[in-house]
């Protein structure tokens, strides 16, 4: 069996690591499914998705410069219709925005000489 880029083959998970899973094929060759190629969603732990001894179907992505097989499980899965979006930060309350504008206006007046010294303390020299 020749494992070429684009081939879809079945193999057995022989070892799990923090960065992926090693898959062995009938011909004795082994390749790596990197953690980023396990699922479309974020994979915190490879062990949450795969077990040693499990038979899986993988797609051969190609070979790296050292001739090692790069594999993917994710490429064979249907893509979710819509990827989850990060939760948007809600608009601040109008009261907060009014207080912030007032604070900024007062700060500008203090720094441009609109009354009092810059430190807001007593007038008339250093302490």
TrEMBL record:
**Key words of the record:** Ribonucleoprotein, Ribosomal protein
Checking InterPro entries in the record gives:
NA-bd_OB-fold (IPR012340), Ribos_protein_bS1-like (IPR050437), S1_domain (IPR003029)
Q: What cellular component GO annotations does this protein have?
A: ribonucleoprotein complex; ribosome
Q: Which Gene Ontology molecular-function terms are recorded?
A: mRNA binding; structural constituent of ribosome
Name of protein: S1 RNA binding domain protein
Q: What does this protein do?
A: Binds mRNA; thus facilitating recognition of the initiation point. It is needed to translate mRNA with a short Shine-Dalgarno (SD) purine-rich sequence.
Q: Give the originating organism.
A: Deinococcus yavapaiensis KR-236
| PROSITE patterns per the UniProt record, alphabetical | S1
State the taxonomy lineage: Bacteria, Thermotogati, Deinococcota, Deinococci, Deinococcales
For biological process, the GO terms are: translation
Q: Where is the composition biased (Basic and acidic residues)?
A: 101-119
Q: Which PANTHER family match?
A: 30S RIBOSOMAL PROTEIN S1, SMALL RIBOSOMAL SUBUNIT PROTEIN BS1C
Family membership noted in the UniProt record? Belongs to the bacterial ribosomal protein bS1 family.
A Pfam family cross-referenced in the UniProt record is S1
Q: Where is the S1 motif domain?
A: 6-74
**Top-level taxon:** Bacteria
Q: Where is this region: Disordered?
A: 101-127
């Amino acid at each position: 069996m020749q494992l070429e880029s684009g081939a879809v083959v079945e193999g057995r998970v022989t070892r799990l690591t923090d960065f992926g899973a090693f898959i062995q094929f009938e011909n004795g060759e082994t390749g790596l499914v990197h953690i980023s190629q396990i699922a479309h969603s974020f994979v915190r732990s490879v062990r949450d998705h795969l077990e040693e001894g499990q038979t899986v179907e993988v797609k051969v992505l190609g070979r790296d410069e050292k001739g090692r097989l790069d594999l993917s499980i994710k490429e064979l899965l249907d893509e979710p219709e819509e990827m989850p979006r990060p939760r948007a930060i809600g608009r601040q309350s109008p009261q907060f925005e009014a207080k912030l504008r007032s604070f900024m206006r007062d700060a500008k007046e203090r720094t441009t000489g609109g009354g009092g010294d810059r430190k807001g303390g007593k007038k008339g020299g250093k302490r």
